[in-house]
Request: fold
Amino acid sequence: MIEASGLSKRYGDLVAVDDVSFSVQPGEVVGFLGPNGAGKTTTMRMLTGFLPPTDGRAVIDGHDIFSDPLAARRAIGYLPESPPVYPEMSVEDYLLYVSKLKDVPRRQRSGAVDRAHERCGLTDVRRRVIGALSKGYRQRVGLAQAIVHDPPVMILDEPTVGLDPIQIREIRTLIGELAGIREGKARTVILSTHILPEVEAICQRVIIMHRGRKALDAPLADLQRGGASLEEIFARTTAREVVVPADATLEARP
Amino acid sequence: MKHVGAIAGRELNSLFVSPVAYAVMTLFAVLAGFFFLSGVLQFQEYVIRLQSFQAMEQLEELNLNDHVIAPFLHVMSVVLLFLVPGITMGLFASEKTNGTLELLLTSPITIWELVLGKFLAAVAFIAILVLLLALFPALLFIYGDPEWGKTAAGMLGLLLMGMAYASIGAFASSVTQSQFVAFFLAFVLLLVLWMLGFLADLGAAGGATSSEHVGDLLRYLSTADHFEGMVMGLVDTKDLAYFGVIVVAFLALTKAAVESVRWR
Reply:
């Protein structure tokens, strides 16, 4: 469903992302971890086609993000770090606008917007102006924006950052639900976060980025079987100076 | 091109929910009213003076088009010089500060659709301004008999000039994150383009005969000179082409500037 091969991003001498490859199967929910500056956002931006990679390629739902960008972008629901909303618009108008941008056919638009309202718990505030909403609700609008066209792939960049604990729990549950509901088929999700319990709550697989490289890539179940907590594994992986391939990391575990 | 309408519609809507649109329209209407009234009063005084001198020949030559409408359109074209940057400053700059550019660039739309949508929204707003302005000469049709064709040509000229200004304003907005910078960059670009003709005249007056060709070139590049012809009632394809080239060139630059977010 998501195929990244050899993705690199260099800004002059600075290497933001270095030769990152992974593939995500349909229906998989992958947690993207890593310290700040590890290249999570840059990788996600390359997957969505916002940034062109210096090297490598990304294929979303069978469409190359570079040679077939429109079809690939249609398959993605993307929530950037700050929700891309227009503060002066009402929730309803905004979602209708996004549904137009995302090529939802005219006849299905109002249905798609209603569904997005419902799923993200926005029905009561649909006529409110986004700028007047709380941060938690604004984040919900951001999520609604990502699913309004019912994409097979969701890419969420720190969806719970800056929220209070209750909002975090709500959004987390919501993401879990959104990952599950898609006309019977499960959605493929990549989400980045700093909150490790979040990964344990909703992800099936973990990718840890460190200094622009993929430092670990393993199913959550395997990691938990090892006995170490995710926090320990995270600390150990990101403390390493020389990054070893994912398989080696797994074997090296005590 | 199916997204152009959606993008233009949202842009117009956001213009009209912000105070910018109303501030610009009010300022425009007030200035138009002021200049129109003073033009008409001057004309009246002039007519009375000529009548008292019995200067029949000059009275024959007097007409509303050349002595009221043309100067009025000239003044208003100068007003557009600083109002259009106010309309266009937010086109792209605000998308960048909102973070919504990321939404647009990850949506299945092309950059041309985005640029055209934004441009058309600005043009639609400028068309509203020109219609607002047309109410004043319309009054003259009730109390006098100006020429239809000449007046319409002048209005068209103003609209075309507004379109050219909008494309330049869109470009200014696409190269910066700050609306403030976008405004001043657009204003300076427009001012320079507008003043090129005067620069040429200055050069000629200063006796710089060797730079005659340079003067012609400057005059050709100046918006004011192409507008001039249309106010006189001459809709020349040369002038239409000039405004067309400006619009296409600056929209292409805008597209490149928006795209360059991806290269950095």
